[in-house]
Amino acid sequence: MVVILKKNANQVQYTNLVEWLKSMNIDIHVCQGTHETILGLIGDTSRLDINLIKALDIVEEVRRIQEPYKNANRKFHPDDTVVSVGDDFKIGGGNFAMIAGPCSVESEEQIIEIAEQVKAAGATMLRGGAFKPRTSPYSFQGLKGEGLKLLLEAKKMTGLPIVTELMDLSDLPLFDEVDVIQVGARNMQNFAMLRELGHLRKPILLKRGLSSTLEELLMSAEYIMAGGNEDVILCERGIRTFETMTRNTLDISAIPVLKTLSHLPVIIDPSHAIGISKYVKPLSMAATAAGADGLIIEVHNNPQYAKCDGQQSLTPAAFQDVADTVRAILPHRYTLNKQM
Ligand code: PEP
Ligand code: MN
User: Fold this and answer.
1) pTM over 0.85
2) Among 250, 252, 214, 210, residue whose Cα is nearest residue 234
3) Which three-class secondary structure state does DSSP give residue 287?
4) Which of 17, 57, 169, 176 is the most buried (most CB within 10 A)?
5) Which residues of 186-210 are buried (b: 16+ CB within 10 A; e: fewer)?
6) Paired sense of beta strands 37-42 and 27-32, if any
7) Which ligand is nearest to the CA of 269?
8) Ligand 1: centre distance to CA 87 (Å)
């Protein structure tokens, strides 16, 4: 971080600033120019409040040179993080995750049938919401604890690890046997929840907030990692833009940018991004070609009658087609990357 001081800065305030920075274990390199004094701050500046320094009378400008996230930063961890799920599945570092399943768990028959169908199509993990964040309080809110039990049953039947959303920390004790805990877009900045999940030793699928920047997403990952849980999977699921033809806008740029800034795996949720089932395939193809570490796709055995998000859910047959196409793209993207 670089702090540029105002001309003729008050000496007492200057000494106070220097003393305060030293008390924070920051070394200071002073560069005395003819017109201005520049302080180069050396050390872990991620804990410094940049706005607090900017607000000081003697400060002209402050510039961050290093990103405010450390654990999630590729600079300090050049190799890709590979997140292990259960004994057999891995995400990141060349391991591609194909996560599929309904928006919400509706019944035993529904989840078991879908689990078997997506497994047959090559899914590596089963998704399904038991606690659903719905815009309307009158919409189906999920089967809650009962839904979790049904997911575990589907896991037992198929061997597929499960990923499901935690909406409220008070439900955490119910998630013991869940393989991957999803933090939904609406909870991306629920800092109390993120901190608590940092104490677990279980992978967390962290979805990008509807209007969150990539840096905010990485700072949320940092909350989890600061607690010692390094198994965070980032998920781009579409952001709010002025476009109304689609549910959200898939930010494809998030893939190369996040993968440059961070070593964490990045997966794409084309279903919530576009909100229309017939467009899920092209988005899945684009995300795969752009270097995503996996996809999370909504699949329903009877989309028309789905209790949630039927309009964007693929039939098992359509999912099979997407999965086959993605598998056909994967070897080419690795070959092309090597040539770049
Ligand atoms: C979901 O995955 O079912 C979901 C609600 O996603 P998001 O938090 O991205 O809206
Ligand atoms: Mn959904």
Assistant:
1) yes
2) 214
3) helix
4) 17
5) ebbebeebbebbbebeebbbbbbbe
6) antiparallel
7) 1
8) 26
